[in-house]
Amino acid sequence: MDSNTDPLVIGQTTLSSRLFVGTGKYSSDSLISEVLKRSGAQVITVALRRMDFHSQVGNVTDYIPSGVQLLPNTSGARNAEEAVRIARLAKAAGCGNWIKIEVISDNKYLLPDGYETVKATEILAREGFVALPYISPDLMVAKRLVEAGAAAVMPLGAPIGTNRGLKTRELLRILIDEIPLPVIVDAGIGRPSHACEAMEMGAAACLLNTAIASAADPGLMAEAFGKAVSAGRQAYWAGLGGRQEYAQASSPLTGFLHE
Amino acid sequence: MDSNTDPLVIGQTTLSSRLFVGTGKYSSDSLISEVLKRSGAQVITVALRRMDFHSQVGNVTDYIPSGVQLLPNTSGARNAEEAVRIARLAKAAGCGNWIKIEVISDNKYLLPDGYETVKATEILAREGFVALPYISPDLMVAKRLVEAGAAAVMPLGAPIGTNRGLKTRELLRILIDEIPLPVIVDAGIGRPSHACEAMEMGAAACLLNTAIASAADPGLMAEAFGKAVSAGRQAYWAGLGGRQEYAQASSPLTGFLHE
Amino acid sequence: MDSNTDPLVIGQTTLSSRLFVGTGKYSSDSLISEVLKRSGAQVITVALRRMDFHSQVGNVTDYIPSGVQLLPNTSGARNAEEAVRIARLAKAAGCGNWIKIEVISDNKYLLPDGYETVKATEILAREGFVALPYISPDLMVAKRLVEAGAAAVMPLGAPIGTNRGLKTRELLRILIDEIPLPVIVDAGIGRPSHACEAMEMGAAACLLNTAIASAADPGLMAEAFGKAVSAGRQAYWAGLGGRQEYAQASSPLTGFLHE
Amino acid sequence: MDSNTDPLVIGQTTLSSRLFVGTGKYSSDSLISEVLKRSGAQVITVALRRMDFHSQVGNVTDYIPSGVQLLPNTSGARNAEEAVRIARLAKAAGCGNWIKIEVISDNKYLLPDGYETVKATEILAREGFVALPYISPDLMVAKRLVEAGAAAVMPLGAPIGTNRGLKTRELLRILIDEIPLPVIVDAGIGRPSHACEAMEMGAAACLLNTAIASAADPGLMAEAFGKAVSAGRQAYWAGLGGRQEYAQASSPLTGFLHE
């Protein structure tokens, strides 16, 4: 099992890395290319707002190496209509046809609106977008997104930027079991061990932003996440052993001196 | 930060890997060399009982590559005296002067006896052994082991062989804070995410046996653990971001369509 | 603070108990009156299917004492239309105007369908029902239910009948913070400590069925839940102390023998 | 099952309440009698230092109603010898023959010293004290205390005063399984739900101090803890249902409208 025999396919694209990264909160845009390089990530999400279509400098996309898939997001959209407009703008601006659909009207917890997200996904998938909707881990919303033509679903582990880990673990597990699309855990992951756990559970990929961007050394943290995601995926395939109630000796316990 | 600038020093030995592995429960001894190779582990623990000093074949040490530090353990010892005898036998048999001190008289949970472990450590450290005692994560026992001359302490995350993870997390954290020796988490780790978490907390290393040996594909699982331990150590140095109560947007949330 | 000064008001009804119970899975219907009596519960939910409008015997409502509020549920409904039909039937049959709206089309995890639930709530609230919708703990669905005229929201702690506890704790906390209606935790609670925790967090009430019905001694378990819910509510008002990182002595530690 | 048929017997004393309380950190000593009354606690621990043998006023024991068992503690003792001296002083001062043995030399986490605690217990039990040693939840230490003649063992759930809950849950469970003495959880319990959980697991009693004393309304919190401990004990006897992986309908799900 390696990236050749276990690729992640989304839309028409085959990826060997299962780590997606974001571009927000970095103290300097130049860190982004370091993060991509050290993490091995092949998908990067960018808020359209960050892309300056007029200016010559400072455009975050300048720092994205070729070979990395751009995933524009609809951050700022408060309903389906706005998300659709942002997606079309992104495509028109040459950002390609992938879109992370993010519809948020709650300013405190930044929780996504499943209802508006399904509506936007229906429209955008029909228009040929590779639609990756950001959702709460709700099975019925995820089922509607399958019908709507989503390419993957991106449930949250905890509210955006909280670094709290897989607080929705039980619901994520159900989505992974039941949804015939890649389940990409997005939001809430604060540590490599959290990402590793998501992958062990069978998540298809993880999207990381705050935990890397807010680390004292983002490049080193990016490398750590790259390894942790890969480790979790390998463990998923290697077949985790069951948990035991009682201890089971690894070494022969008796008989050495007692024969 | 890499293994050159962040080595683990135990006794006189400098290690670049922070994963230790065991030799128990493997369906075939030949798997052990694969596990060492794929995990990058440089320390391997062996029960003296497993070493056949007379027979020509089947000796587990045949499968241990040169360059890997042998860590014989006193598995089977039920008190300090027995542990001391086993340690001396191991040294006399050419197994070197490292010893994992394991004193267990509880047959159900296989929990170590701190009192006898301290006694054995005092004796063996005085005789020049590099003593690595296996303990419950008890601060006062660990302090006595520092005084007794231990080279590291090896607290359990959960009972041996249970794969339950860091169930003693709060007590491990205290040991890591307070004990001026490497803290090596030994027992209970069942998944790469568990090992990664221990390293993020500041553990110096992890010892793995059951979780690798009982995987459907031990070689692949060994590779996963190697990465997870390294990822956790890097995250420790990279500076984990704090947990937040409320969400914090990664992307600019407002203003795109609302200017 | 007691039930006189801290009543739970739902619709026009004032309740002194914050424990709701179900009627499913009991080995004998006669247990139900014992459960009501020993737990002090004042609200009981019944699937309409359980109510035999023709037969003279075995009707579960025979066992419900006067003074207990009946909460018929729409169990069996797979969409809004079916839920509305069941609710109207219940009212016509003399079950009153309270209705627990349960719309489930997922047969494995029995997770509710937020979209259909909102639709049914809009219709039934307009018709004068006291509507208590059962939901996943999704903030945006809960906000829509407020607008739709719900009298309370009933988010799940874990899938129905699993006894797993507050696995959706983080999301429940957000609902309790943000929703200006009673939040009644329904499903997943397996132990009195789980119900107590929900109440400490500020839940308005808990609905229990499986954990009581499947206990070896349901009457005793009902009594335990009654106390635990009351304890949790009192703790909520008494003001829980903060968690501390380090120990803080309760007793004077120094000076006794060291003056 | 009630307090008549399920008493807690320690030494020669039969208790109907399974809540023990402390006397530290109260803003006013007069609160203590309110706490005893509202919680129903029948055992109260007092640091000898708090007892003023000379002064006429302000002695905490003045506030302890008759019928409540006094449990002096050896708080301030840093080794076995000091604990023994304090215990003897307490007895000589008329405090009776119960003693909570607390030996702590760690000033940051206030973790007990198992080795010195065993020594003190041996001496004091031999002198006829009803010895209740405070310990880390270490099985081997607990086994030695059984041999030393302890009347109960008092393992910590988390460091004193932290309100963190049952962070040592796995180790407590082992003690409850293996030790043929009452296991009284002491330290770390911060909420009624924590105490309830300890009792559900089979703990014989809980000792609470900080969580009550530091509540905004200690009397109300005391009442909450009294109920929660009783609820947990009842649940233990009522037979907790098992946890399920998948949902299990409480109400009949199909057939209502689909026959």
Automatic annotation (TrEMBL), chains A, B, C, D:
Pathway: Cofactor biosynthesis; thiamine diphosphate biosynthesis. Residues 10-252 form the Thiazole synthase ThiG domain. Pfam families: ThiG (PF05690). It is an enzyme of class 2 (transferase). Keywords: Cytoplasm, Schiff base, Thiamine biosynthesis, Transferase. The keyword Magnesium does not apply. InterPro entries: Aldolase_TIM, Thiazole_synthase_ThiG, ThiG. 1-deoxy-D-xylulose 5-phosphate binds at G161, A187, G188, N209, T210. GO terms for biological process: thiamine diphosphate biosynthetic process. The active site is at K100. It is found in: Cytoplasm. PANTHER family: THIAZOLE SYNTHASE. HAMAP family: ThiG (MF_00443). Catalyzes the rearrangement of 1-deoxy-D-xylulose 5-phosphate (DXP) to produce the thiazole phosphate moiety of thiamine. Sulfur is provided by the thiocarboxylate moiety of the carrier protein ThiS. In vitro, sulfur can be provided by H(2)S. This is Thiazole synthase.
